[in-house]
Every structure is written in C-alpha cells, then in structure tokens.
Amino acid sequence: MENRFQSDLVQLKMIILQMAALAEKALEKSTSALVERKDDLAREVVAEDREIDLLEVEVDRLALRLLALDQPMARDLRFIVASLRIAVELERIGDQAVNIAQRALLLNSRPPLPRNLAVEELAETALDMLRTVISAFVNQDPDSATCVCKMDDTADSLNYRILKDFLAYMSKEAPAVERSVQTIIVARCLERAADQATNIAESIIFVVKGVNIKHHCQAIKEGD
What we know:
By secondary structure, this protein is mainly alpha-helical. It contains 7 helices and no strands. Helix 4 packs parallel to helix 6.
C-alpha cells in the first residue's frame, strides 16, 4: 500500500507538471500570436485548451482518491491539497491564454495599433513568473516561490501603465477605440495570469513550510 501511495503521489506531481508545461506553452503562443500577428498560433491555443481541462479533471480524481483511501498526514497532505489548488490556477492560466488568443484573432484582422512595449514587457513578466513558479514546484523551493510574489508588483504596474497609455490614445484616435479596448483586455488577462502564478507560489510555500499565506503574498513582499 505504501508503494502504491508513493507512486500515486509521483503521478500527481507529473500531471501537474504536464499541465504547467501546456499552460506555459499556451501563454507563450497566445502572446506571440498577438505580437507577431500569427493567426495559426492563436487557433492552436484555442484548440489545445481542452487538454489542460482534462488534466485538471485527472488531478481532481487522483487527489480525491489519495485523500479518501490513504488519509495522508503532514507534508503529504499539504502536497495533495496544494495540487488541487495549483491545478485550478493552471487551468485558469490556460483560459487567460485562450482569451488572449481570441483577442489576437480579432486584432490581427484589423490594421495594427502603434507598438506598445509595455504589453510585450507584461507578457514576458507573466511568462517569467510562470516559469519561475514551475521551477519552484519541481524543486520544492520556497525562496523561488517568494520571488514570484515579489514580481507581481511589476505585472500590476505594467497593467496600469498600459491602461493609461491606451486611454490617452483613444482620446485622440476615435477609430482605434475598439482595438485599444481589446488590447486593454489582453493586458488584464496577462495581469491575471501573473496573479495566478502568485497563487501557485503561495501553495508551494504552504507545502514546504506548512504556512498558509493564501491572499497574504503582499505581507511577504512588505516584510522582506
């Protein structure tokens, strides 16, 4: 029974890593579809989202079986609970990527807006946060997870900057209002993906340190 339990824990971790790899790929493709105006990449993101959804269902199934049959304790229990949380956040990141891809398809069909480097910087920040938190999960590294918490301020600032930039642009260029609004939505999706990476970081700290800092990542940033 112990061997089966450990095997199931390993399987649970591997499914989470599969989800993480797909979510990272989706976010990267969707932002490339937008910046490089590539419709084929956007359509791939939309089509491949189902795979992330199915993996989330598999995480639920396996985690609930572990909880029901094995009554895990201490770190094993925390890992299983955190895996359920992390799977939800990864599925949501996949959804954000789909939203960006859909905006990209619309924007790519219209004349391009002036390049806004803050959008690209926000996309890279969100991706960097996701990659860092995946590494933190693999290595069970709370220090790297804490770094992700700190990076969230950058994502928030960039999102606010993009909002201000496009509001100013719309006031002067009425024909560009719809495209500007769609770009603001893209920025919001990227900022939400960054928030979801932060939530995953909180779960990693919970697993390793046994401290629940859910919704309190700001306290870590201010305390350091």
